[in-house]
Design goal:
Elements lengths: L2 H17 L6 H26 L4 H20 L5 H15 L3 E5 L4 E5 L6 H11 L12 E4 L14 E8 L4 E9 L5 H57 L4 H18 L6 E3 H19 L3 E7 L7 E3 L4 H12 L6 E10 L2 E8 L6 H5 L7 H21 L6 E4 L5 E8 L7 E2 L2 E2 L1
Parallel strand pairs: 7-9
Antiparallel strand pairs: 1-2, 1-5, 3-4, 4-5, 6-8, 9-10, 10-12, 11-12, 13-14
Helix pairs in contact: 3-4, 6-7, 6-8, 6-11, 7-8, 8-9, 9-11
């Protein structure tokens, strides 16, 4: 090829290569990757931002509810120095202001912030606001100004106070004292009143819990009174008949009787384990078999898994006693009492059944005071146990009674294996 043509071709070739796209460099690749990462981070942050509390109103609502939840648990135990000391700080955060106090009618329970030296003046004003008589009412809201709170301390920031009575219903149990550094204004008074009403509601719940415990204790006393007159007489009669004919058997029954009475009249705990309840029932049936002889047959079927389940104290004893006294005592020939406790996942299923004379279902629908003698006693025992089960475990865990004249009686219950607030402590249930 002539030299001129070669030079021209080479020139054209170089020009064509210049027109081709250049290969990507490391800097270009890094820039692309960095951009993708930043985009992904932006997407993640945006999605998270959507899930957080976005508006000031939502944030304020959350803060108020959170602070209130900190004060509620101690107040649900009543108004004492201990519970007031635990609740005073979240209540102060909830209401704001220089200081906050919780007082009883005659003393300071807890105080946070300055101004506690004004407590005597606050208590005097609270006493003046109460109606005559201890149970006449809950008093009225008091707004105190600087003239009502004289002070010789130059650095004292207290310029007023709002005193709102606290009550559990009809009786005043104390007051909430909101200390302010200005004259009390209507907005502050309203906030203090609303806070005090919320505190009073928690104290009312505490009073309700106490009333429930008192009712449970009364029900236990009624059960013990129901057991004692009938069973003790029959047990002692059966033992006395064996003293001469079988002294060893009589001694054994006396020991079992003593253990049964000890368990029945114990003063520890509202609850017990199923194992303890069945052990007491075994002693009861041992003594009853000494009285009825071969006429009384017992069938016991208990799953080992349910023995530690916590049940209300004396929840089975009345059912077994009813099966013996009201089901088999009036039946000719042999009678059988069946006690079955089975595992049903999160629950324990318990039933007490007899093949005795049964009863009219309409009798169970009548008030517990209706009927006479044995029928009324059986009804009271079933109603008592049913009320206690529903109170502890909820309305769905009451007794289910299946009966008819001449067809025997079966009483069933469902007991949760785990229930908040129901547990065994140091060998006793609480």
């Amino acid at each position: 090829m002539p030299a001129g043509l070669a030079s021209a071709a080479e020139g054209q070739l170089v020009s064509a290569q210049d027109l081709l796209p250049a290969s990507p460099t490391a800097a270009t690749v890094a820039a692309v990757v960095l951009g993708a990462v930043l985009l992904a981070v932006a997407v993640v942050l945006r999605s998270r931002k959507r899930r957080v509390i976005a508006t000031p109103t939502q944030r304020a609502t959350y803060q108020v509810l959170h602070v209130a939840s900190l004060a509620a648990p101690p107040l649900r135990s009543g108004l004492t120095e201990t519970t007031a000391a635990k609740a005073i700080r979240p209540l102060h955060q909830l209401l704001g202001g220089p200081a906050l106090g919780l007082v009883a009618p005659d003393r300071v329970l807890a105080w946070e912030g300055p101004g506690e030296h004004h407590a005597p003046a606050v208590l005097a004003a609270l006493a003046d606001s109460r109606p005559e008589g201890l149970h006449e009412g809950t008093g009225r809201v008091i707004a105190l100004r600087a003239d009502d709170l004289p002070c010789d301390l130059l650095e004292c920031p207290v310029r007023g106070a709002v005193v709102v009575p606290l009550s559990t219903g009809e009786e005043m149990v104390g007051a909430l004292v909101a200390i302010v550094d200005t004259d009390p204004v209507p907005g502050l008074v309203r906030a203090a009143v609303e806070t005090a009403e919320w505190v009073s509601a928690q104290l009312a719940f505490a009073e309700l819990d106490v009333s429930r415990e008192r009712l449970a204790e009364a029900q236990l006393r009624a059960l013990r009174a129901q057991i004692s007159p009938h069973f003790i007489y029959n047990a002692l009669s059966a033992i006395s008949a064996l003293v001469r004919t079988d002294p060893e058997r009589a001694r054994e029954l006396i020991e079992e009787f003593a253990e049964f009475v000890r368990y029945s009249v114990r003063a520890h705990g509202e609850y017990t384990t199923l194992a303890e309840e069945l052990r007491s029932i075994d002693r009861y049936l041992l003594i009853e078999r000494a009285r009825f002889g071969d006429r009384l047959q017992v069938r016991l079927q208990v799953a080992p898994e349910v023995l530690p389940v916590v049940v209300p104290y004396l929840c089975l004893q009345p059912l077994v006693e009813n099966a013996v006294r009201h089901g088999l005592a009036g039946k000719a020939g042999t009678g059988t009492v069946s006690i079955i406790a089975s595992d049903a996942g999160s629950e324990c299923l318990i039933s007490v059944e007899d093949d005795g004379v049964g009863m009219d279902p309409d009798q169970l629908r009548r008030p517990a005071g209706g009927g006479r003698g044995e029928t009324r006693s059986a009804h009271v025992g079933l109603t008592n146990v049913d009320d206690r089960l529903r109170s502890v475990f909820g309305p769905g865990c009451g007794l289910v009674v299946e009966t008819a004249p001449g067809a025997g009686t079966k009483v069933s219950m469902r007991v949760p294996k785990f229930q908040p607030g129901v547990r065994v402590v140091s060998g006793w249930a609480s």
